[in-house]
């Protein structure tokens, strides 16, 4: 069974923001599909791709309305960190992760040696994205990218991916009739977009092709190469569960408020297992469900998770999954204060928006903007400013 949330359901791989559609691209989207595909072919040929490859790639291309429905309906999963992490980090997934790390030990050795990315980190993404290749998506990749390129909502993101997919057809790494993947065009066991596959793909099994669907070694090394590109710092930690004192100044917690480890130690923050990282290393103290739930120090490498996927809950779960695969014990769930229902969260967001905060779309999602606003209002009201919205906070703001 595919993970209930993946990079494709939240944000596109490697895309940190959605730019406004340029006039040139807007003029090339929509309209007659045949004319649109002819324009795509001309662009592909202008980039050195053969007309024959473009014709083969686009011969039977069609609009997939299921892709459009998925694109319109996408949204961050609304479970809490405890709910989501417990659901996606099952014992079965843990067992399969360990077995795969053993089965492909030599490949992971190479990934760590050449790219500096730990096997547990790669394996966690591999497991969450596709259950280690078991469920990779059943959308025709060419049709998905044609659909999203033709649609005028975000052609600036998808047209380059379509051109890259045509180049993959020319290289023999994509079959336009048979290659399937996620609704947004990601392919393979670690779900990567064609542009990234072309740039970071590694032929790990030596067959002359980069085939992320069928080859686990290719997927492992390509994933490692991409993670290194995102800025992974070899030999450094990414996430560590900690024990925090009850009297901590909670307004100092949260992403974007990193302090040297020595300062956290001076404030009474302790490692749950082992010891904290180097005193000079910066870390942010994150509390996914407030001061009464699990607490983690997020080191610089944690930022790579946020580039893979912008959802705080997904990235924290993925980073935590990697620590578990690396030998850490199960987190201390604590006893978090009750959170808000979907309707209550939307009400809170409207109130915060009315106060001038940028919480983005009123969608019931506890995103970065809402968390930051909650923390500021908690501090103003003299409440523990741990960025976890509760019914008590909502009541005081109403």
Automatic annotation (TrEMBL):
- Keyword Signal on entry: yes
User: Transglycosylase SLT domain: which residues?
Assistant: 35-322
Which superkingdom?
Bacteria
Gene3D superfamilies membership: 1.10.530.10, Bacterial muramidase, PGBD-like superfamily/PGBD
Q: Where is the signal peptide?
A: 1-26
Q: Which UniProt keyword terms apply here?
A: Signal
Q: Where in the numbering of this chain does the Peptidoglycan binding-like domain appear?
A: 342-397
Cross-referenced InterPro entries, in alphabetical order? Lysozyme-like_dom_sf, MltB-like, MltB_2, Peptidoglycan-bd-like, PGBD-like_sf, PGBDSf, SLT_2
The family database entries (NCBIfam families) matched by this protein are listed as: MltB_2 (TIGR02283)
This protein's name: Lytic murein transglycosylase
Tell me the organism.
Answer: Hoeflea poritis
